[in-house]
Amino acid sequence: KNNLLIKNIIILLVSGAIAKALGMIGKIIYTRIAGVNVVSLYTLITPTLMLIITITQFSFPISISKISAEEKYENNDILKNAITMGFIIDTFLIILVLISASFIANMLHNKALTPAILSVSIIIPFITISSIQRGFLHGKEDMAPASITNITEEIVKVILIILFLPFAIAKSNITAVIFIILFNVITELTSIIIMQKTINKKYINNNYKPKINIKLLKEILNISGPTTLVRLISSVGFFLEPIILTSTLLQTGFSSNYITLEYGVINSYIIPLLSIPSFFSASIASALLPNITKLYVNKKYNEFNKKLLKLLFLSLIVGAICLSVILLFPKQLLILIYNVNFGVNYIYLIGPFFLILYMQPTLSVALQAMGKTNKLFLTSTISMILKYSVLYIFGKLGFGMKSLIFSIITGIIVTTFLVIIIVMKEIKNKSK
Questions:
Q1: Concatenated DSSP letters for 110-159?
Q2: How far apart are CA 226 and CA 378, in angstroms?
Q3: How does the entry describe its membrane topology (predicted)?
């Protein structure tokens, strides 16, 4: 079991590193081909896209992984019930997108974005299917197929950008944005085909007819519901952040151009750069979930605790090494990756606190294994309230863009330590 866990972690880390590198190459190619206007339009629609994807995924990679690992239900039943639930959610979501597209575009003060928002509805079912497949394979501790798709998605995306984006830009900027959104259909479809081949070969019983299981549906809902609510809070925060920041800073004498530029620097360059090491902890957490779920279900609490501590330590070590490189060579990395050399001061201010952030995926997975995902909703709510209170108060006090930095740091610290307290309390109760 230990060897399998180590093997899965290595697979996820290596594939994650390759996918991240390809993604970075793709981002560089995309920004240089698309130009400022297309990038700006796509950035404007990104919060809406992320919100829809959050609902579409419905945390299936987590819930299906846990249920698949427990092996209480037939594989055919798990997949049938998950896909049925997913398509019901998709139907309502697609209708909602079609009805509200124009309203959302008006909220973004750009009516031209309406067709781009409408195009998001096309990618919804593809994201649902691939999310369920990933969760199922992770639960079976079969990491290779999903890891391969992480790489193939990035390769396909880069090819599509090079071949079709220039043609779309020649038509119009909005056409280019629509193409970028619809590229997700091709990338997700590629992943679905690869993962389904493995599922059909290894896990599907052709002699067993799957059936709807109300108990199974409730179990999926009980895990996915709270976790999705947590992510929705983050998505809502994504909407609120620039609104609060702009209104408070304008009132304290900062210009609109300054706010736009500095906010763009922090969110487009600094946060993504500091978040690069997080794929290590996220990969470790993905490999961890099936293993520690079995330990917890079988009441092997001492083994559960030891494995959790080891993986937290591993997340910190890997994160510290990566963060050290970023802090030592911030300017060089910004130039290499984004071809910009500003924002270094923000890296020094916020960077050290990202080491705490790298623990979050492992801690969240520990809560999911314990069946305490409802607690994540509470921690995220408290964190969001405190984070945006700090943003508003320090903005009003005239701290400028540092108010945003302070709010980000607050969110990282509060969320991480609240989850640590909950995990420790649960471990203490089970150890009695």
A1: -GGGHHHHHHHHHHHHHHHHHHHHHHHHHHTT-HHHHHHHHHHHHHHHHH
A2: 9
A3: Multi-pass membrane protein
Per-residue pLDDT at 109: 64
- Predicted pLDDT of residue 159: 93
d(CA 53, CA 64): 17
Q: 80, 47, 62: which is closest to 131 by C-alpha?
A: 62
Cβ–Cβ < 8 Å for 259, 402: no
Radius of gyration of the chain (CA): 22
What does the pLDDT look like over 248-273, one tens digit per residue? 888 888 886 677 677 777 877 788 88
Q: Which of 415, 404, 312, 386 is nearest to 350 (CA)?
A: 404
80: DSSP letter: H
Q: What pLDDT is stored for residue 407 in this prediction?
A: 94
**Residue 30 half-sphere exposure, CB side, CA atoms within 13 Å?**
26
The mean pLDDT of the chain is 85
Give dist(CA 5, CA 7) in Å, integer.
5
User: Could you tell me if 140 and 117 lie in one domain?
Assistant: yes
CB atoms within 10 A of CB 274: 25
CA distances from 402 to 45, 237, 362, 409 (A): 26, 18, 29, 10
Range of the domain at 232: 225-432
Q: Whose CA is closest to 127, among 181, 200, 47, 65? A: 181
Residue with tokens 């809070």: 233
In this structure, the answer to whether residues 207 and 301 fall within a common structural domain is: no
- Which of 191, 212, 233 is a domain's end point? 212
Question: Left, alpha or beta for 209 (phi > 0: left; psi -120 to 50: alpha)?
Answer: beta
**What's the CA gap between 355 and 209, in Å, rounded?**
48
Residue that finishes a domain, picked among 189, 212, 235: 212
DSSP string, 223-274: HHHHHHHHHHHHHHHHHHHHHHHHHHHHHTT--HHHHHHHHHHIIIIIHHHH
Residue written as tokens 């863009």?
401
pLDDT over threshold 70, residue 431? no
Between CA 319 and CA 428 the distance in angstroms is 27
Q: How many domains does the chain have?
A: 2
- If you average pLDDT over residues 302-319, what whole number do you get? 84
pLDDT bucket at 230, cuts 50 / 70 / 90: confident
